[in-house]
Design goal:
- This protein is mainly α.
- The chain is 63% helix and 5% strand.
- A hairpin with a 7-residue loop joins β3 and β4.
- α6 packs across α8.
Length: 295
């Protein structure tokens, strides 16, 4: 007897992936606190607050410019142009219909010259959002397929993914800064064999070396969870998962030619990896299709 497929409610999928994202982010902040605690025990208990504040300020300043101008940076880096409402009338109509169903304001729409099927959304808030699609997506995707991709991008906008991933970047930056400062400071530390805190020193060194590697994988896991949430949001807006499934299958069948215009820093924003390689920021297409088929 054929086993009945387990169904997934898109609302549960969105909530589940948001909870997992927050849990993974809490792991990053826990590592920051643990690192700060160990270092403060090695040097001075009073230094704990200074370490957290200093690393937080440096990391925030580093990513602030990218956050504020995220849409302009992304669009400029790929040579995107504002879409002509007359020439790309169907593109505008699809997005207008989706904004009505999602309750989101109308984003600015852009076009990127590329034969690949792809798209991305950027902007620090729904009011500042932009959506860009490739000319390849407009040519190769049927109406319902393109609608599914655009709804996915609007899902990123509604979920404030740019803002959330910026917060993650700040936290990851803090871990990197704290680890590097601590390891470099050991060069200026004298040999103190009678140090009562030698156990903290050993633990601190181990954590400072391993935490950036571990945090990288946590960051990638958070990014993948946000992609699953955006897929579920697409189903929420369109009530038609088949459109997005067909679009993903077409991307699977495309010849994997790297898109030279795309900077590696911008690549994670895209609906599908534009660089023609396996990307840790996105779940495998097969896995995304499998989840969508259960909705």
């Amino acid at each position: 007897m054929e086993k009945k497929m387990e169904r997934i409610d898109f609302r549960d999928q969105i909530s589940r992936n948001k909870r997992k994202s927050f849990f993974l982010l809490s792991i990053i902040f826990s590592i920051i606190i643990l690192l700060g605690f160990l270092i403060s025990q090695i040097y001075s208990p009073d230094s704990f607050l200074f370490i957290i504040i200093f690393s937080g300020i440096i990391s925030f300043c580093y990513v602030f410019f990218s956050y504020v101008y995220s849409d302009k940076i992304a669009l400029f880096s790929v040579g995107a142009k504002l879409a002509d409402p007359e020439k790309y009338r169907d593109y505008y109509r699809l997005v207008e219909g989706l904004t009505i169903s999602s309750g989101l304001p109308m984003p600015k729409l852009y076009i990127m010259e590329s034969n690949q099927i792809n798209a991305f959304a950027s902007g620090r808030s729904p009011e500042k959002a932009v959506i860009c699609v490739t000319t390849g997506a407009l040519k190769k995707l049927e109406r319902r397929e393109l609608e599914g991709v655009l709804a996915h991008e609007l899902g990123h906008v509604q979920n404030y993914d740019i803002r959330y991933m910026t917060l993650v970047s700040v936290a990851v930056g803090m871990v990197s800064i704290i680890s590097n400062l601590f390891l470099r400071s050991l060069w200026f530390r004298g040999n103190d064999r009678d140090n009562k805190n030698s156990i903290f020193l050993i633990l601190g060194i181990i954590l400072a070396i391993l935490s950036p590697i571990f945090i990288f994988f946590v960051q990638m896991a958070i990014s993948r969870k946000r992609e699953f949430s955006a897929d579920a949001s697409s189903v929420k807006f369109t009530r038609y998962p088949e459109g997005l499934i067909r679009a993903l299958k077409k991307i699977q069948q495309e010849e994997k030619i790297p898109e030279k215009k795309v900077n590696q820093a911008v690549a994670p924003l895209f609906f599908a990896d534009p660089l023609g390689k396996m990307s840790s920021t996105h779940p495998p297409i097969e896995e995304r299709i499998k989840v969508l088929e259960k909705m």
